[in-house]
Design brief:
Number of domains: 1
Helix content: 40-55%
Largest sheet: 6 strands, mixed
Distance between the termini: 41 Å
Strand content: 5-15%
CATH superfamily: Periplasmic binding protein-like II
Shape: globular
CATH class: Alpha Beta
Length: about 290
Protein backbone atom coordinates (compact mmCIF):
# COMPACT_ATOMS: atom_id res chain seq x y z
CA UNK A 1 0.00 0.00 0.00
CA UNK A 2 1.22 3.51 -0.85
CA UNK A 3 2.17 5.21 2.39
CA UNK A 4 0.67 8.49 1.15
CA UNK A 5 -2.93 7.23 0.94
CA UNK A 6 -5.42 8.39 3.53
CA UNK A 7 -5.23 6.31 6.70
CA UNK A 8 -1.74 4.94 6.07
CA UNK A 9 -0.54 5.95 9.53
CA UNK A 10 -2.74 3.27 11.11
CA UNK A 11 -1.43 0.56 8.82
CA UNK A 12 0.39 -2.35 10.46
CA UNK A 13 3.10 -3.48 8.11
CA UNK A 14 4.70 -6.50 9.73
CA UNK A 15 3.14 -9.09 11.98
CA UNK A 16 4.19 -11.97 14.17
CA UNK A 17 2.34 -14.23 16.54
CA UNK A 18 2.59 -16.05 19.82
CA UNK A 19 1.13 -19.47 19.06
CA UNK A 20 0.08 -21.85 21.84
CA UNK A 21 1.56 -25.32 21.72
CA UNK A 22 2.86 -28.09 23.94
CA UNK A 23 6.48 -28.91 24.67
CA UNK A 24 7.21 -32.53 25.52
CA UNK A 25 10.30 -34.50 26.44
CA UNK A 26 10.74 -36.80 23.48
CA UNK A 27 13.29 -38.90 25.34
CA UNK A 28 10.92 -39.42 28.30
CA UNK A 29 8.13 -40.43 25.93
CA UNK A 30 10.38 -43.03 24.33
CA UNK A 31 11.35 -44.37 27.77
CA UNK A 32 7.67 -44.76 28.65
CA UNK A 33 6.86 -46.47 25.36
CA UNK A 34 4.79 -43.55 24.12
CA UNK A 35 5.21 -43.14 20.40
CA UNK A 36 3.31 -39.89 19.90
CA UNK A 37 2.31 -36.85 21.94
CA UNK A 38 -1.30 -36.84 23.18
CA UNK A 39 -3.90 -35.47 20.79
CA UNK A 40 -6.86 -35.41 23.21
CA UNK A 41 -7.36 -34.70 26.90
CA UNK A 42 -8.06 -38.41 27.41
CA UNK A 43 -4.74 -39.33 25.81
CA UNK A 44 -3.06 -36.53 27.79
CA UNK A 45 -4.27 -38.02 31.10
CA UNK A 46 -3.17 -41.50 30.05
CA UNK A 47 0.28 -40.20 29.12
CA UNK A 48 0.53 -38.29 32.41
CA UNK A 49 -0.02 -41.51 34.37
CA UNK A 50 2.72 -43.31 32.44
CA UNK A 51 5.24 -40.49 32.62
CA UNK A 52 5.03 -39.76 36.36
CA UNK A 53 7.58 -41.35 38.69
CA UNK A 54 7.89 -39.50 42.03
CA UNK A 55 10.73 -41.81 43.08
CA UNK A 56 12.81 -40.15 40.36
CA UNK A 57 11.41 -36.71 41.15
CA UNK A 58 9.73 -36.80 37.75
CA UNK A 59 6.22 -35.56 37.01
CA UNK A 60 4.34 -35.63 33.75
CA UNK A 61 3.01 -32.10 33.56
CA UNK A 62 4.27 -28.72 34.67
CA UNK A 63 0.97 -27.16 35.77
CA UNK A 64 0.90 -23.39 36.05
CA UNK A 65 -1.16 -22.92 39.21
CA UNK A 66 0.33 -19.62 40.36
CA UNK A 67 0.45 -16.30 38.51
CA UNK A 68 -0.93 -16.67 34.99
CA UNK A 69 -2.83 -19.89 35.76
CA UNK A 70 -6.09 -18.29 34.62
CA UNK A 71 -5.10 -18.58 30.96
CA UNK A 72 -5.12 -22.37 31.01
CA UNK A 73 -8.12 -22.62 33.34
CA UNK A 74 -10.19 -20.60 30.87
CA UNK A 75 -8.86 -22.60 27.92
CA UNK A 76 -9.79 -25.89 29.59
CA UNK A 77 -13.27 -24.56 30.41
CA UNK A 78 -13.81 -23.69 26.76
CA UNK A 79 -12.39 -27.05 25.70
CA UNK A 80 -15.10 -28.70 27.80
CA UNK A 81 -17.73 -26.66 26.00
CA UNK A 82 -18.29 -23.64 28.23
CA UNK A 83 -18.29 -20.24 26.54
CA UNK A 84 -17.16 -17.29 28.63
CA UNK A 85 -18.95 -14.26 27.15
CA UNK A 86 -21.59 -14.03 24.42
CA UNK A 87 -22.89 -10.75 23.04
CA UNK A 88 -21.33 -8.89 25.93
CA UNK A 89 -23.04 -11.05 28.55
CA UNK A 90 -21.65 -13.64 30.96
CA UNK A 91 -22.23 -17.05 29.37
CA UNK A 92 -20.36 -19.62 31.48
CA UNK A 93 -22.04 -23.02 31.34
CA UNK A 94 -21.76 -24.11 34.95
CA UNK A 95 -21.98 -27.87 34.37
CA UNK A 96 -19.31 -27.79 31.66
CA UNK A 97 -17.09 -25.44 33.68
CA UNK A 98 -17.31 -27.63 36.79
CA UNK A 99 -16.42 -30.69 34.72
CA UNK A 100 -13.44 -28.79 33.29
CA UNK A 101 -12.14 -27.61 36.67
CA UNK A 102 -12.59 -31.08 38.14
CA UNK A 103 -10.56 -32.64 35.33
CA UNK A 104 -7.83 -30.03 35.44
CA UNK A 105 -7.48 -29.75 39.24
CA UNK A 106 -7.50 -33.55 39.61
CA UNK A 107 -4.18 -33.66 37.77
CA UNK A 108 -2.82 -32.25 41.04
CA UNK A 109 -5.32 -33.39 43.67
CA UNK A 110 -6.10 -36.94 42.58
CA UNK A 111 -3.74 -38.09 39.86
CA UNK A 112 -0.60 -36.54 41.43
CA UNK A 113 0.97 -36.13 37.98
CA UNK A 114 2.14 -32.55 38.54
CA UNK A 115 4.79 -31.25 40.96
CA UNK A 116 3.67 -30.63 44.56
CA UNK A 117 4.62 -26.97 44.09
CA UNK A 118 1.98 -26.47 41.36
CA UNK A 119 -0.34 -24.10 43.30
CA UNK A 120 2.47 -21.53 43.40
CA UNK A 121 4.18 -22.29 40.09
CA UNK A 122 4.16 -19.53 37.49
CA UNK A 123 6.11 -19.07 34.26
CA UNK A 124 9.58 -19.26 35.79
CA UNK A 125 8.85 -22.42 37.76
CA UNK A 126 7.23 -24.38 34.93
CA UNK A 127 10.10 -23.45 32.60
CA UNK A 128 12.75 -24.51 35.10
CA UNK A 129 10.88 -27.72 35.80
CA UNK A 130 10.89 -28.64 32.13
CA UNK A 131 14.42 -27.48 31.44
CA UNK A 132 15.87 -29.46 34.35
CA UNK A 133 13.95 -32.66 33.66
CA UNK A 134 11.43 -32.50 36.51
CA UNK A 135 8.50 -32.48 34.09
CA UNK A 136 7.77 -34.17 30.77
CA UNK A 137 5.23 -31.73 29.33
CA UNK A 138 4.33 -28.07 29.61
CA UNK A 139 1.79 -25.85 27.88
CA UNK A 140 3.06 -22.48 26.67
CA UNK A 141 3.62 -20.70 23.37
CA UNK A 142 6.25 -20.16 20.71
CA UNK A 143 7.80 -17.22 22.56
CA UNK A 144 9.61 -19.60 24.95
CA UNK A 145 11.20 -21.74 22.23
CA UNK A 146 14.61 -20.08 22.42
CA UNK A 147 14.82 -20.56 26.18
CA UNK A 148 13.89 -24.24 25.93
CA UNK A 149 16.27 -24.78 23.00
CA UNK A 150 19.12 -23.31 25.02
CA UNK A 151 18.78 -26.09 27.61
CA UNK A 152 17.54 -29.09 25.62
CA UNK A 153 18.29 -30.38 22.15
CA UNK A 154 15.38 -29.87 19.72
CA UNK A 155 14.25 -33.08 18.05
CA UNK A 156 16.25 -35.31 20.38
CA UNK A 157 15.42 -34.31 23.94
CA UNK A 158 12.27 -32.31 23.27
CA UNK A 159 9.71 -31.75 20.58
CA UNK A 160 6.55 -29.69 20.13
CA UNK A 161 2.94 -30.64 19.43
CA UNK A 162 -0.41 -28.88 19.08
CA UNK A 163 -2.37 -28.46 22.28
CA UNK A 164 -4.53 -31.54 22.96
CA UNK A 165 -8.19 -31.18 22.13
CA UNK A 166 -10.88 -31.23 24.79
CA UNK A 167 -14.17 -33.15 24.73
CA UNK A 168 -16.02 -30.30 23.02
CA UNK A 169 -13.47 -27.98 21.41
CA UNK A 170 -9.85 -27.69 20.35
CA UNK A 171 -8.54 -24.60 22.11
CA UNK A 172 -5.24 -22.89 21.46
CA UNK A 173 -4.64 -19.15 21.31
CA UNK A 174 -2.92 -17.20 18.59
CA UNK A 175 -1.98 -13.72 19.78
CA UNK A 176 -0.88 -11.38 17.00
CA UNK A 177 1.37 -8.36 17.35
CA UNK A 178 2.62 -5.94 14.74
CA UNK A 179 4.79 -2.97 13.95
CA UNK A 180 3.10 0.09 12.52
CA UNK A 181 3.60 3.72 11.51
CA UNK A 182 1.59 6.00 13.76
CA UNK A 183 2.86 9.54 13.17
CA UNK A 184 4.55 11.73 10.58
CA UNK A 185 7.96 12.15 12.25
CA UNK A 186 10.72 10.69 10.06
CA UNK A 187 8.06 8.90 8.09
CA UNK A 188 10.27 7.59 5.29
CA UNK A 189 12.68 5.93 7.70
CA UNK A 190 9.80 4.60 9.78
CA UNK A 191 8.12 3.15 6.71
CA UNK A 192 11.34 1.47 5.58
CA UNK A 193 11.81 0.01 9.06
CA UNK A 194 8.38 -1.58 9.41
CA UNK A 195 8.43 -2.73 5.81
CA UNK A 196 11.73 -4.49 6.46
CA UNK A 197 10.17 -6.53 9.27
CA UNK A 198 7.46 -7.68 6.89
CA UNK A 199 10.01 -9.38 4.64
CA UNK A 200 10.47 -13.13 4.88
CA UNK A 201 14.18 -13.02 5.72
CA UNK A 202 13.60 -10.58 8.56
CA UNK A 203 10.63 -12.58 9.87
CA UNK A 204 12.70 -15.76 9.93
CA UNK A 205 15.61 -14.00 11.61
CA UNK A 206 13.21 -12.78 14.32
CA UNK A 207 11.84 -16.30 14.71
CA UNK A 208 15.29 -17.82 15.12
CA UNK A 209 16.33 -15.15 17.63
CA UNK A 210 13.14 -14.92 19.70
CA UNK A 211 10.67 -17.67 18.82
CA UNK A 212 8.15 -15.07 17.61
CA UNK A 213 6.32 -16.94 14.88
CA UNK A 214 5.78 -15.28 11.48
CA UNK A 215 2.22 -14.49 10.52
CA UNK A 216 2.87 -14.00 6.80
CA UNK A 217 1.89 -16.70 4.31
CA UNK A 218 5.19 -16.27 2.45
CA UNK A 219 7.27 -16.93 5.54
CA UNK A 220 5.22 -20.00 6.46
CA UNK A 221 5.95 -21.50 3.04
CA UNK A 222 9.69 -21.05 3.45
CA UNK A 223 11.55 -24.40 3.58
CA UNK A 224 13.25 -23.36 6.82
CA UNK A 225 9.84 -23.54 8.50
CA UNK A 226 8.17 -26.26 6.45
CA UNK A 227 11.09 -28.68 6.80
CA UNK A 228 11.67 -28.09 10.54
CA UNK A 229 9.53 -30.48 12.67
CA UNK A 230 9.73 -28.14 15.67
CA UNK A 231 7.70 -25.50 13.81
CA UNK A 232 5.00 -27.80 12.44
CA UNK A 233 2.86 -27.67 15.58
CA UNK A 234 2.65 -23.88 15.37
CA UNK A 235 1.87 -23.93 11.64
CA UNK A 236 -0.91 -26.48 12.25
CA UNK A 237 -2.33 -24.42 15.12
CA UNK A 238 -2.76 -21.39 12.88
CA UNK A 239 -5.54 -23.36 11.13
CA UNK A 240 -7.73 -23.67 14.25
CA UNK A 241 -6.28 -21.35 16.89
CA UNK A 242 -8.47 -18.68 18.46
CA UNK A 243 -7.72 -15.13 19.41
CA UNK A 244 -7.44 -14.50 23.16
CA UNK A 245 -10.65 -13.56 24.91
CA UNK A 246 -11.21 -9.83 24.76
CA UNK A 247 -14.05 -8.15 26.62
CA UNK A 248 -14.49 -5.31 29.08
CA UNK A 249 -13.00 -6.34 32.40
CA UNK A 250 -11.31 -9.48 31.03
CA UNK A 251 -7.90 -8.83 32.57
CA UNK A 252 -9.22 -7.95 36.01
CA UNK A 253 -11.64 -10.89 36.12
CA UNK A 254 -8.98 -13.33 34.95
CA UNK A 255 -6.33 -12.23 37.41
CA UNK A 256 -8.39 -11.40 40.51
CA UNK A 257 -11.20 -13.96 40.24
CA UNK A 258 -10.23 -16.94 38.08
CA UNK A 259 -6.66 -17.24 39.33
CA UNK A 260 -7.37 -17.23 43.09
CA UNK A 261 -10.46 -19.39 42.66
CA UNK A 262 -8.45 -22.07 40.90
CA UNK A 263 -5.63 -21.85 43.44
CA UNK A 264 -8.23 -22.31 46.16
CA UNK A 265 -9.36 -25.53 44.49
CA UNK A 266 -5.79 -26.80 44.39
CA UNK A 267 -5.29 -26.00 48.08
CA UNK A 268 -8.60 -27.57 49.14
CA UNK A 269 -10.31 -24.34 50.16
CA UNK A 270 -12.96 -24.52 47.44
CA UNK A 271 -14.63 -27.25 45.44
CA UNK A 272 -14.77 -26.90 41.64
CA UNK A 273 -18.49 -26.15 42.01
CA UNK A 274 -17.81 -23.31 44.46
CA UNK A 275 -14.97 -21.97 42.32
CA UNK A 276 -17.17 -21.79 39.24
CA UNK A 277 -19.84 -19.95 41.24
CA UNK A 278 -17.22 -17.35 42.15
CA UNK A 279 -16.11 -17.07 38.53
CA UNK A 280 -19.69 -16.57 37.30
CA UNK A 281 -20.43 -13.96 39.95
CA UNK A 282 -17.16 -12.17 39.29
CA UNK A 283 -17.74 -12.20 35.55
CA UNK A 284 -21.21 -10.72 35.88
CA UNK A 285 -19.76 -7.97 38.07
CA UNK A 286 -16.93 -7.28 35.63
CA UNK A 287 -19.33 -6.89 32.72
CA UNK A 288 -21.69 -4.43 34.40
Amino acid sequence: MDRHVKGWRDLCCSRFAFVDWMYYRKDYFEEAGLGEPPKTFEEFLSACRKLTDPSKGRYAFGMRGGAGAFKYVIDVMEAFGSPIVKDGQAAIDKAAAVEALTFYSNLFLKEKVVPPSAPNDSYRQIMEGFRTGQTAMIWHHTGSLIEISGALKPGDQFATAPMPTGPKAHIARVAYAANGVMKDDNVDAAWDWVSFWGETEAALALLEATGYFPASAAALEDPRIKSNPIYQAAAATLDFGRLPNSFVGAAGWSETVVNPAFQSVLTGQLTPDQAVDRMIEGLETALR
